[in-house]
Amino acid sequence: MAKRSSLSIRIVEGKNLPAKDITGSSDPYCIVKVDNEPIIRTATVWKTLCPFWGEEYQVHLPPTFHSVAFYVMDEDALSRDDVIGKVCLTRDTLAAHPKGFSGWAHLTEVDPNEEVQGEIHLRLEVVPGPGGPRLRCSVLEARDLAPKDRNGASDPFVRVHYNGRTQVTSIVKKSCYPRWNEAFEFELEEGAVEELSVEAWDWDFVSRNDFLGKVVFNVPRLWAAGQEEGWFRLQPDKIRSHLDEGNLGSLQLEVWLRDETVLPSGCYQPLVQLLCREVKPLTQGPGQLITLVEETTSTACRQEVATNLLKLFLGQGLAKDFLDLLFQLELGRTSEANTLFRSNSLASKSMECFLKVAGMQYLHNILGPIVDRVFEEKKYVEMDPSKVEVKDVGCSGLHRPQTEAEVLEQSAQTLRSHLGALLSALCRSVRACPAVVRATFRQLFRRVRERFPSAQHENVPFIAVTSFLCLRFFSPAIMAPKLFHLRERHADARTSRTLLLLAKAVQNVGNMDTPVSRAKEAWMEPLQPTVRQGVAQLKDFIAKLVDIEEKEELDLQRALSLQAPPVKEGPLFIHRTKGKGPLVSSSFKKLHFSLTTEALNFAKTPSSKKSALLKLASIRAAEKVEEKSFGSSHVMQVIYTDDAGQLQTTYLQCKSVNELNQWLSALRKVSINNPGLLGSYHPGVFRGDKWSCCHQKNKTVLGCDKTRSRVTLQEWNDPLDHDLEAQLIYQHLLDVEDTLREKHQALKGTLETGTDPAPRDSLAQLFQVLRDLQQAHSSSLAAAPSSAHRRLLELQA
């Protein structure tokens, strides 16, 4: 049994932001922090006070996280970025919205006294004294304190307040992981104040000391308990009323917290087997469970259900059969060929998810070079005469206004070039298309041709394929390349318009250049020759794609399965590190890294024949490094064991916070089942004779901070988690159980009318499976030990 928490985050847009630049505008972006740790940075939207991002993320977290905060920043090229404001959502707030928090939230001012982080290790006990019982507070250590100084650290000390008396620890210089091991005693008296306050501060020689956080304890409860020891989360000094709320603008968010208790695999086998039986060939028929699931799934959760089912069947090797069943269901209720797969049905949503999971690398290979070219050229492209802007052209001193006709002709020429390059790359990619995608498109093509066999519907099977490949996969990726990981930043206005027009052209090709498609935007007519040629190319591509025999598909799949495809790759800077091991190199040397499911490989260039590797089985942790350690941001460390079994560390620098978290996430996911994973680590470096983080002088001493191996980002190339998908499907079926029981009642007369009783039997089995899983969950909760952490929290007033 495992408890898992995940955050689904969609940062939609902002409005009415204050101007931070002298131009009267701002260049806003968002930083998302979970418990003060940055995990996401959106793209910057330039020169606007009402930015639109539309970026989506999913973060997997330990269930103990406390809050997620959204900071809106203004990017500055010459100085430090300005903080505009923030929105903070606590875990309790998110838990109070089972269907997710959605809407506009006012930005509030960032108060330094509320920007606290980290934990403090205390021992509290009541001890006998000559004048009566005394309260002893031992201040042992702290970790992950907020860095308040320019050197990326703090100079922390602690003040302990009780009954009008204050005692202070020594100051630990340049550390966010200080160790004090100092004890203070206070007399316990009847009628004394009931609170003990422990405050952490950053000492400053010139200016005022900075507040780092505090913990407050209820003394009567502590007296009753006798002794308590543990790590306590530092809290803000006070939550003041934000009088400026609303003056800093607003942020539209969609945030959904999901907590799941995932049972052992064996508990889900009856459910998985029942669902798999429903989609296997030769067992399909009317009234199957998948049909009933589709009928009882609301529009709001259809995408989620489609994703969960698709991933479950993909893990069972039945994705093609599941999608084939959905194709048959939709074809059975479609009478007009031109409406086929145009709605947001379970089939359409499942196919969209399937293409993203199985075909994203293929999309990157086809679209990547074309999208990069559009971004790099930054040409002005416009096909709509009502939107054309003429400009000066010509050499220096001989400028003349460019005519509207010239703008339109140059725009058409640019788009023809991009569209031609895209279609040529697509036509050459039949063998590069993933085998499981080809097999699914082949089955779709055959089903549609069987349903619409007449000559007047000759193009319908082709349009069925392109409705997914072009309209729901390629075109959205062209319009929003960042959302499909094709680019790191959103396009500017000019590039965005070019991409939109290119996407429209691709849609026209995907629609097989129908009269209806042409009539919508007549000003796209100059592209028609290229579109007509593209239709012929696309039909030829699809004909070849669906003509590959299944035996050849299986042989190709087996060949591909023997290879270890990269999980993530790209350039990183490697820092100098002492000790022996495969990753020793000079400071700031740029190398190309490739992470597969077997090893972390690196070489001078992507094409270098000479390379080295670090076996994934030897990795013990992948964590961030304090900025002060190298004077550089976005540095991570990979801790591994060498051939002699000794722990070694390499330090790698990324170019952005997003890339840093993506690499950490990828490394954590591929090594999550390694034996001997570390529970703690040093966020600093061992320089000279001590650790820069906690100042301990033993290089092999236990780490001063806890590892975060369970904090990961969900990516399209993530390994499948079969148990989690089964749990999510079970939870959905439990939510719609009442509706399914109504269906069950309606099917009770099937035996009397002589029809097939299989649907009723499947439903009866499903209800039994749901009852068994409910019982398993109840047993797991009853067997779970009570948390000692709750007792510690009770001590805090």
What do you see in this structure?
With 797 residues, the protein is an alpha+beta fold. The chain has five domains: 2-110 and 243-257, Immunoglobulin-like, CATH 2.60.40; 119-233, C2 domain (Immunoglobulin-like, Sandwich), CATH 2.60.40; 263-333 and 728-797, no CATH class; 355-393 and 402-548, Orthogonal Bundle (GTPase Activation - p120GAP, domain 1); 568-713, Pleckstrin-homology domain (PH domain)/Phosphotyrosine-binding domain (PTB) (PH-domain like, Roll). Helices cover 36% and strands 24% of the residues. It contains 21 helices and 30 strands. Strands 22-21-20-19-25-24-23 form a seven-stranded antiparallel β-sheet, covered by helices on one side. A hairpin with a 5-residue loop joins strand 24 and strand 25. It is globular, with a radius of gyration of 30 Å. The model is unreliable at 392-398, 558-564, 578-586 and 786-795 (pLDDT under 50). This is Ras GTPase-activating protein 4B isoform X1.
